[in-house]
Design goal:
The chain is an alpha/beta fold and 398 residues long. It has 18 helices and 14 strands. Helix content is 49%, strand content 14%. It starts with a helix and ends with a helix.
């Protein structure tokens, strides 16, 4: 990541911090305690997962519990029934299983419908934040990339950029019959899928003829109330807003009981909903007390806003779509391969201090990269030397 991208990233992160400072919810500490309790209860809870699947199926949804990304992709291919044009919304789990890449190799056209993710897709760029993926790109850089893609001059004005990308997205949605989304939560009691967004695109994507939801087994919550509590914390930490513009709760396909109170399904779209629940070693990691808490993460990205290394080198402190210390630690665990980018962690504890769940990422990273005190001293000195070096580079390029 170059100097201009780091500068744009810091500017974007500071704007979120400012909004957070202006409207901290009065009951935020209590909400965090409730969230911690629900995450401790749900992660690795096989009985609750089974109850969630039963509830989803009772509501008329088709559910697949899949072991790994290969199985997930194959099932999704079967569910597409040869339909070659797909629209999807932002989903970290679909990035994890590399769904878009896999579908494109098979001749499918996949269009991201979140403005930021569509820009990344067009520019073939890497994300810098789980909810603000193009935070590191200035309007000037984006306009340049889009001008080449659309083959016409585009001004470096945020309003014009959003307008042009939106027109592209709306056109794509209108032509698609299948929509793929992620999910922020699955509730066991109600058998509901919960998704939050600000742009409104998820509402459009999920209302195609068929809706495929791709999420992971660690997104289970006991009930709607506990999931809503999580969404409020997620929204505040990710954007500085107390609640997002939209919260979608799906508890089955469209239906009516207007005639003799008999349920008739498929009145409007979607007429079919398929839920893909991805394990990908999560059930195994949930049994490991030393790393289990990584699965508590709700993906708000607040740790990145305060990480000194991430604010110095951006998504150079990342692996694929796994951002910062937490992301690289999780990537190392699920691939079962030690990542050399773990060396970037300064062990300063800023991520834990600013995490709503106080996840001790530095402690997990120390376990992953060390065999003893002497090696941890080596990594401590190396990471701080790297940070000082990049800080010096930034000052020179100002």
């Amino acid at each position: 990541m170059n100097h201009s991208e780091v500068k744009a990233l810091r500017k974007a992160f500071n704007s979120v911090k400012e909004r957070q400072a202006q409207q901290l919810p009065c009951d935020f500490e209590e909400r965090k305690k409730r969230l911690a309790s629900s995450r401790e209860l749900c992660v690795g809870n096989e009985e609750l997962l089974a109850r969630s699947i039963t509830s989803l199926e009772k509501n008329g949804m088709k559910v697949h519990l899949v072991k790994d990304k290969e199985e997930a992709v194959n099932i999704i291919l079967d569910e597409l029934d040869g339909e070659k044009f797909i629209v999807k919304s932002k989903s970290n789990v679909t990035k994890e299983i590399e769904l878009t890449k896999a579908l494109e190799k098979k001749g499918f056209t996949v269009v991201e419908t979140d403005i930021g993710d569509r820009i990344l897709q067009i520019m073939k760029a890497s994300p810098s934040h789980p909810t603000g993926p193009v935070a590191h790109l200035s309007a000037k850089e984006i306009a340049k990339g889009l001008s080449g893609y659309y083959n016409r001059p585009i001004k470096d004005d945020p309003d014009e950029i959003v307008k042009i990308v939106r027109e592209d997205v709306v056109s794509s949605i209108s032509h698609a019959k299948i929509g793929i989304t992620g999910a922020n939560a699955i509730t066991a009691e109600e058998g509901s899928i919960m998704m939050t967004h600000n742009e409104g695109n998820i509402y459009e994507v999920m209302r195609k003829e068929r809706h495929i939801v791709v999420t992971s087994i660690d997104k289970i919550y006991p009930d709607i109330e506990s999931a809503i509590n999580m969404l409020k914390i997620l929204s505040y930490n990710a954007t500085g807003s107390i609640i997002p513009s939209f919260v979608e709760i799906i508890s089955g396909v469209s239906k009516t009981a207007d005639v003799e109170k008999k349920f008739i399904k498929g009145v409007h779209s979607p007429s079919r909903i398929t839920v893909i629940l991805v394990d990908n070693r999560r059930s195994e990691l949930a049994k490991n007390e030393g790393v289990r808490e990584l699965l508590y993460c709700i993906g708000c990205g607040n740790c990145l806003l305060y990480c000194p290394m991430y604010n110095t080198i951006g998504n150079e402190f990342a692996r694929d779509n796994y951002l910062g210390g937490k992301g690289i630690a999780y990537h190392s665990l699920y691939t079962n391969e030690r990542d050399d980018k773990l060396e970037f962690c300064l062990s300063c504890g800023k991520c834990r201090e600013n995490c709503p769940l106080e996840l001790d990422i530095p402690a997990i990273i120390k376990k992953l990269r060390s065999t003893g005190i002497s090696s941890e001293i080596y990594y401590f000195l190396k990471s701080h030397s790297l940070w000082l070096y990049y800080q010096a580079l930034l000052r020179i390029n100002r």
